[in-house]
Amino acid sequence: MRLKSSAVITGVGGFVPDTILSNSDLEKMVETNSEWIVSRTGIKERRILTDPMQATSDMAAAAVKNLLETANISAAEIDCIIIATSTPDHLLLSTASIVCDKVGLSNAWATDVNAACSGFLYAFTLGASLVESNRYKKVIVVGADQNSAIINYKDRNTCILFGDGAGAVLLEQTTEDIGMIDSVFKTDGHGREHLLVPGGGSKIPATTESVEQNKHFIFQDGRVVFKAAIKGMTEACTDILKRNDMVINDIDWLIPHQANYRIIHAVGDNLGLPADRVKINIERYGNTTAATIPLVLWDFKNDFKYNDNMILTAFGAGFSWGATYLKWGKLR
């Protein structure tokens, strides 16, 4: 038994919009074809939030409500909520505060984290640290993004990749030998020009010119990101193994950011992990950025057993990358 408390996942929730954007749909929008998309990315369809009255906060709130219902706890019990997102409802107002209102979290400290596709792991580590401090008993961590709001559906290099969705986990204290054990994170700002939304911030404020130049859509240098993502996630997972005196056979599950089917398999192959121990759902949702990892946990929660060794790993804009090692607990 541990001498101090740690943070363990005791609940998971998720939400994806009803509207499906298939590869066949994209064939009618840009010059591409389903066979090519699947062979290059592994994606067959993605979910899109089409209601103009809804935004990232609505998906996040739906994921939190799903979590609260399945975990059978009330909103009043939540001490803190952290939202990882790159597509906030507003530039000046945290999405977390909006979610608090929509879910009825009247007693919670709330904040946002923006680390793009690495965001959920950053927020997860922050939430776990709050639980481990003994000052917060129940912390919800959410990854949510409405990528369709920042996608140029005339750009075939990006529109085929991204979808919308939200996933959430509940973190609570435990003194058992489970929960979050270790995390490794790194950031190298030299990669920032290869993956970003150039406009909308203080550097390139919204103007008629910036809109006409498509500065408010995602730009990605796919070749650079592809290589850096494989390298970054492989190194982060290797660091986790070394720091905890483990070998790859000690790991039951790899939960990678769902960026691209080929990236995921390359990381697994580099680590020497059998494909059946790498969880993938990108074929149904595409890349939902901060939501990918919690959506994998939500989708496959019934596959995980108590004390399973898991590595969660991600790579995102910045560049930012990292990995988290945890032991699976018991869900409420």
From TrEMBL:
CDD domains: KAS_III. The gene is fabH. This is Beta-ketoacyl-[acyl-carrier-protein] synthase III. GO terms for molecular function: 3-oxoacyl-[acyl-carrier-protein] synthase activity; beta-ketoacyl-acyl-carrier-protein synthase III activity. It catalyses: malonyl-[ACP] + acetyl-CoA + H(+) = 3-oxobutanoyl-[ACP] + CO2 + CoA. Residues 258-262 are annotated as: ACP-binding. Its EC number is 2.3.1.180. Gene3D superfamilies: 3.40.47.10.
